[in-house]
């Protein structure tokens, strides 16, 4: 097991070295223990089904030693204690004691307009994260649960919040406002925030390092294609536009989310008798590839397999996925006035040569031509997959949100920061 040190530019030697990264969801607590000198993972894992039946811990040490065990945990505090027991366990642990953990970085989904950057956590920061729960009711409360658990278990060590929304806060009003009366922005914060920002930032930095070009001279279109999908136009390190909106529902066709849709569809369905919650569930959980293909899965591998077995609905779902993605790439190429590279990341972007071929083969009008052999060979690793004469490069770049959170934690806590 190793991390992907795609760029070494971020590490500042005076910062903390032993950094714990925490990603707390509603019923899970994911952790990665980093040694930042060398950016290596010492241990990682997850407690799943917190507060539900049969919670379990999956724990993996740097040398591949793994364990999966049933645990008895009812909340994030108890889950973190179970993780910490293993981190200091003489048989499988990597720490002599918990005092070796110097800092903790937390993934927080929504930082609204208040947080344009990562931030050291204080009581005031926690209060604002809680306030932002109105915009991310499913995510910010468990994120805060992870932060509180760390305060209980680790006491007074520095904690840093890294927001999915922060990297996108460089957008101008022309990108982030919706064309509705301004008062809805002022009163309710109705605007585009964008998500997956930690991933877009990581792959932008990693692509700059890989192409050996300073970020200050690079225009990128980054495509994060996982279960959730989003795309960002990045001009010299600043996001100009991105496809997710006030919530992650907007934009590209995703595993179970519809992406762009006429808002009048929602009104129409409510007037037909569906409740707001029913429409919400349908658009978030039963749409996208899952809804269109109708094969009981929104997993891209299943959709491709069904399409290859001549399932027409699965083929239609794929066409919609490609059509939407190519439309966005064209639009972002225009607003960037010509990008240097379109970058593929996320489970689909990193692993599916098929999806990349179907997308890049439609970018000839932008001067981007596929190198088929390079594309086939690029599975889960960084590569240029366009031909040498391409004006717009196509690049595969594995993302690493945990490492980005660890780097942000070091950056914020370094004396030079
Ligand atoms: P998440 O958004 O949950 O982090 P991932 O980034 O892991 O998800 O991406 C999951 C998606 O990646 C799934 O749709 C899965 O089918 C897809 N995927 C993973 N490997 C491949 C592959 N070899 N070919 C096509 N799709 C793949």
Question: Can I get a quick summary?
Answer:
The protein has 417 residues and is α/β, with parallel strands linked by helices. The protein is 37% helix and 19% strand.
What does this 3D model show about the protein?
The structure is a single chain. The protein is an alpha/beta fold. Helices cover 37% and strands 19% of the residues. It has a domain at 214-396: Nucleotidyltransferase, domain 5 (2-Layer Sandwich), CATH 3.30.420. The strands form 2 sheets. It has an 8-stranded mixed beta sheet, with helices on both faces. The chain has a 6-stranded mixed beta sheet with strand order 11-10-9-12-14-13, with helices on both faces. It is globular and about 60 Å long. The structure holds adenosine-5'-diphosphate. Adenosine-5'-diphosphate (ADP) binds at residues 226-228, 255, 299-301, 304, 346-348, 351-352.
Strand content: 15-25%
Ions, cofactors and other ligands present here are:
adenosine-5'-diphosphate
Strand neighbour order, sheet with most strands: 5-4-3-2-1-6-8-7
Low-confidence stretches: 1-11
> Nearest-angstrom radius of gyration?
21 Å
- Give the topology string: H per helix, E per strand: EEEEEHEEHHEHHHEEEHHHHHEHHHEEH
- Name the CATH superfamily classification of the domain at 214-396: ATPase, nucleotide binding domain
What would the average pLDDT be, to the nearest integer? 95
Major sheet: 8 strands, mixed
CATH C-level name of the domain at 214-396: Alpha Beta
CATH topology of the domain at 214-396: Nucleotidyltransferase, domain 5
CATH architecture of the domain at 214-396: 2-Layer Sandwich
* Number of helical stretches of at least 4 residues: 15
Terminus-to-terminus distance: 30 Å
Helix content: 25-40%
Structural class based on helices, strands and sheet pairing:
alpha/beta
- The strand count comes to 14
Overall body shape: globular
């Amino acid at each position: 097991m190793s991390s992907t040190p795609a760029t070494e530019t971020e590490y500042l030697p005076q910062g903390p070295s032993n950094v714990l990264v925490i990603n707390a969801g509603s019923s899970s607590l994911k952790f990665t223990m980093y040694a930042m000198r060398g950016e290596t993972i010492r241990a990682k894992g997850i407690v799943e089904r917190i507060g539900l039946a049969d919670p379990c811990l999956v724990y993996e040490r740097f040398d591949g030693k793994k364990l999966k065990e049933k645990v008895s945990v009812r909340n994030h505090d108890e889950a973190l204690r179970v993780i910490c027991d293993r981190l200091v366990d003489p048989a499988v642990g990597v720490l002599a004691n918990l005092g070796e953990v110097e800092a903790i970085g937390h993934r927080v989904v929504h930082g609204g307009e208040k947080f344009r950057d990562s931030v050291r956590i204080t009581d005031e920061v926690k209060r604002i994260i809680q306030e932002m729960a109105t915009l991310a009711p499913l995510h910010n409360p468990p994120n805060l649960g992870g932060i509180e658990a760390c305060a209980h278990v680790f006491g007074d060590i520095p904690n840093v919040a890294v927001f999915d929304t922060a990297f996108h806060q460089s957008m101008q009003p022309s990108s982030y406002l919706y064309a509705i009366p301004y008062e809805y922005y002022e009163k309710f914060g109705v605007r585009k925030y964008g998500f997956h920002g930690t991933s877009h930032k990581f792959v932008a930095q990693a692509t700059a390092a890989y192409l050996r070009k300073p970020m200050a001279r690079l225009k990128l279109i980054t495509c994060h294609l996982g279960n959730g999908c989003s795309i960002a136009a990045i001009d010299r390190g600043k996001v100009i536009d991105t496809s997710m909106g006030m919530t992650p529902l907007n934009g590209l066709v995703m595993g179970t989310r519809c992406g762009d849709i006429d808002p009048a569809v929602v009104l129409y369905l409510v007037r037909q008798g569906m409740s707001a919650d029913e429409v919400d569930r349908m658009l978030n959980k039963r749409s996208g590839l899952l809804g269109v293909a109708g094969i009981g899965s929104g997993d891209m591998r299943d959709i491709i397999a069904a399409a290859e077995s001549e399932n027409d609905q699965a083929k239609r779902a794929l066409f919609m996925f490609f059509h939407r993605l190519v439309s966005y790439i064209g639009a972002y190429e225009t607003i960037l006035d010509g990008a240097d590279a379109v970058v593929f990341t996320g489970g689909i972007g990193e692993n599916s040569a098929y999806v990349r071929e179907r997308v890049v083969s439609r970018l000839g009008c932008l001067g981007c031509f596929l190198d088929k052999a390079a594309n086939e060979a690029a599975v889960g690793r960084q590569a240029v997959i366009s031909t040498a004469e391409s004006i717009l490069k196509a690049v595969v770049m594995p993302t690493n949100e945990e490492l980005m959170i660890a780097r942000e934690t070091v950056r914020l806590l370094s004396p030079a920061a």
